[in-house]
Amino acid sequence: MTECQPAILQAVPPLARYVTYTLLPGTDPAVSLRALAKLVDGEHTVAGLGFSLTSMLGHEIEGLRPFPEFSGFGLDVPSTPAALWLWLRGKDAGELFHRQREIDAEISGAFRKTQLIDAFKHGSGRDITGYEDGTENPRGKKAVAAAVSSVKGIAGSSFVAVQQWEHDLARFNAMPQTGRDHCIGRRLSDNEEIDDAPESAHVKRTAQESFDPEAFVVRRSMPWTEGTRCGLVFTAFGSSLDAFEAQLRRMLGVEDGTTDALFKFTRPLTGAYFWCPPIKGGRLDLSALGL
Ligand code: HEM
């Protein structure tokens, strides 16, 4: 039976590594991908393939495309595509380190690592600002409908949008508490939604039911820190990339000129889309790519 990579439907783990790879010039990735398929169970290790990789294999994955870059209204949203994305999930930093080295060695014939981000779960699943993240995620059957494709040929697969955001915490913390709550649109104290928050409030911009069609995604974002730097690895799974893209456009003010208040204190450093193949028999099913 073909199923989605199970971690997509699970809560975020205590620790994770986000790793991206580029394809080495002049190499055939088939051998590396077959080796990778055996190492990816979709639960401890989640994998996503970028447009550059699927297109060079000569197989179109319907709906997969490069991440759109955007510049305007004082904002730059970069597109930083990659051939391969891995999300290593666990609870022991040493085990994650060794698992990642093993995978790197297995796929080194065709792939070279381009970025590695260590991420973690903060409290009950909070952004590093302290605000709970993931409250309005669809659950159960609704999560499956939002995150898993039923399109013939790629049924059981998912798409993911990944952006590393860097927060300016000093700037955020310099705002009064109500100003911070109004940025998010929820109160830090009890996580309640603020009905009369400004239109720029993040949850007003992204309210999933307010789109036509409704734009539900399953968010599994995790905070990162590096020395004094910090932010969020925003991670949203969808049955297609359309819901995420509609939300991002709204955040940027493309429709009405109102930009998301999040931009008062945080910026995306990266942005990429990946196709997350299904799992069959406990390993990655790459049959849609002829592998
Ligand atoms: C630094 C970046 C971001 C931070 C810190 C952040 C934080 C949050 C927080 C605290 C909430 C409220 C609780 C919840 O329902 O999860 C939320 C909601 C949400 N965010 Fe974000 N977010 C970020 C980026 C994004 C991006 C880039 C998107 C999509 C383009 C997005 C989509 C959503 C959606 C769909 C909701 C739920 C809205 C609803 O239906 O109520 N977020 N986010």
Mind explaining what this structure looks like?
- By secondary structure, the protein is α+β, with helices and mostly antiparallel strands.
- It has a single domain (2-286), classed as Alpha-Beta Plaits (2-Layer Sandwich).
- It is 24% helix and 27% strand.
- The chain contains 8 helices and 15 strands.
- The chain has helices at residues 30-39, 51-56, 93-107, 140-147, 169-174, 177-184, 202-206, 242-252, and strands spanning 2-3, 15-23, 45-49, 70-72, 75-77, 84-90, 111-120, 158-167, 218-219, 222-226, 229-238, 266-268, 272-276, 279-280, 283-284.
- Strands 8, 9, 10, 11, 12 and 13 form a 6-stranded antiparallel beta sheet that branches. Strands 3-6-2-7 form a 4-stranded antiparallel beta sheet.
- Strand 10 (222-226) and strand 11 form a beta hairpin.
- The longest helix has 15 residues, at 93-107.
- The model has no long low-confidence stretch (mean pLDDT 97).
- Bound molecules: protoporphyrin IX containing FE.
- Protoporphyrin IX containing FE binds at residues 127, 131-136, 163, 165, 184, 186, 202-203, 206-208, 217, 232, 234, 236, 244, 247-248, 251, 262, 266.
Elements, N to C (H/E): EEHEHEEEHEHEHHHEEEHEEEE
Give the CATH topology: Alpha-Beta Plaits
Form type: globular
Strand content: 25-35%
> Which cofactors or ions or other ligands sit in this model?
protoporphyrin IX containing FE
Report mean pLDDT, rounded to a whole number.
Answer: 97
The level 1 CATH classification is Alpha Beta
Structural domain count: 1
Number of helices: 8
Determine Rg (CA atoms, Å).
19 Å
State the helicity in percent bands. Answer: 10-25%
Number of strands: 15
Structural class based on helices, strands and sheet pairing: alpha+beta
Please outline the major beta sheet. 6 strands, antiparallel
**CATH architecture assignment name:** 2-Layer Sandwich
**Span from first to last CA?**
17 Å
Low-confidence stretches at least 5 residues in length (pLDDT < 50)?
none
